[in-house]
Input
Amino acid sequence: MTKKRTDRMVLSAFLMPAGYDRHAWQIEGSRAEEFGQLGILVDLAKRFEGAKFDSVFIADTLGSDFIRENDLSMGNPYEPVASLAALISQTKHIGLIGTISTTFTHPYNTARQLAALDMLSGGRTGWNIVTSSWGAPAFGMPGLPPREDRYRRAAEFVKVATELWAAWSDEAIVADRKSGKWVDPDLIRPVKHEGEFFKVEGYMNIPRSPQGHTVLVQAGQSAGGLALGAEYAEIIYTVQPEIGPAIAYYEAQKARIGTAGRNPDQVKILPGIIPYVGRTEAEAQALFDAVVSKMDLEMLRDVVTKKLDIDLSGLSFDERIPVERFEAALAKVGGSRLVAYRDYAQQEGRTLRDLLVNHSSAMGHILSIGTVEQVADQMVDWFESRACDGFSVNAPSYPGSVDTICDLLIPELQRRGYFRTEYEATTLRGNLGLPHPPAWDKRKTDS
Output
């Protein structure tokens, strides 16, 4: 395919030492004994930095039941803020994105933590903004607030954080030894916010970083999530397993961003992809089969039943799932992810077994199994069709899949001109081609 787009793919790597598939850690050669330790995290981050990825991303789930269920894909044993802080001195160029919930935290403390990480990293951080779905008992809460309330809180939370980051002018530090002024106090504006959820007065003792403030990342696909992403996000992670609906989503979300008064080209939409890459089709299939061989289908039936709130009882693994069961689940809980699963399960010849394997391996994302050329073709097709601006690359296993992605797939994308061969800037925002966010500046306001 002839390259038509003038921009390049954005590639963000999901930093999961256990691998994206919940069974991948069981494969011989995994470093399962090291999960939770720094060494394996550093090795993985450096591997992706060597391949010139834009960023690595550490997700977080505040509900801890996944660990007792031995689901290390959802129960990732790395707290994002501490883990990213540890990675700052171990990396030089790659962006460092972490999840912090707006449901259980306060905007002043979160803004301060992220400002500190951004300064210490030289402007390489990103914040994945989430409203939590688990974890209420750990915080002494009888349950979570309604979804609509959580998203209203999130929107106000981000508004406060961005106001705090903008309180310092880019020129506030003068470091004038003669006058004894390290900062010009007139170039720091205290915030005074009183809203539905938060009352915040003051400013932080941390100046703005070289990229202005942390890159804002978001992944929700409910109505509230789409609105929050349109208003604030600079990277949007999304679940889009099929190219047709992905093109429609891309167009609709870019329109929402424009309606919110923002430049749609300055928001990068990244669907998730799980690449099983081989030098031959057989080699790629063997990587996939090695993971599938570890799967307990009855356990996965229970997992999917609980996660999607769908009745899968009484079905054999080689039986088609009646569409009525999806419709009953949609009537109760809704959600675009459940719609994606329904559409997948209703494809010709699909069985319960297919759905369970796909859930374990891809969790609704793009499952791509093939040669380097075949997987690269698919990624280029999505990119050129404007189904995305790049991908969240979810390596199914480590070290095996990470090696094939970094050593085979990335060089192929570079050879075709779709991905960088060197970092262009020193900040995450610079490497993404995003503008420097404006700060409040008293002199500019007065002029």
Remarks:
- Residues 433 and 443 are 28 Å apart (CA to CA).
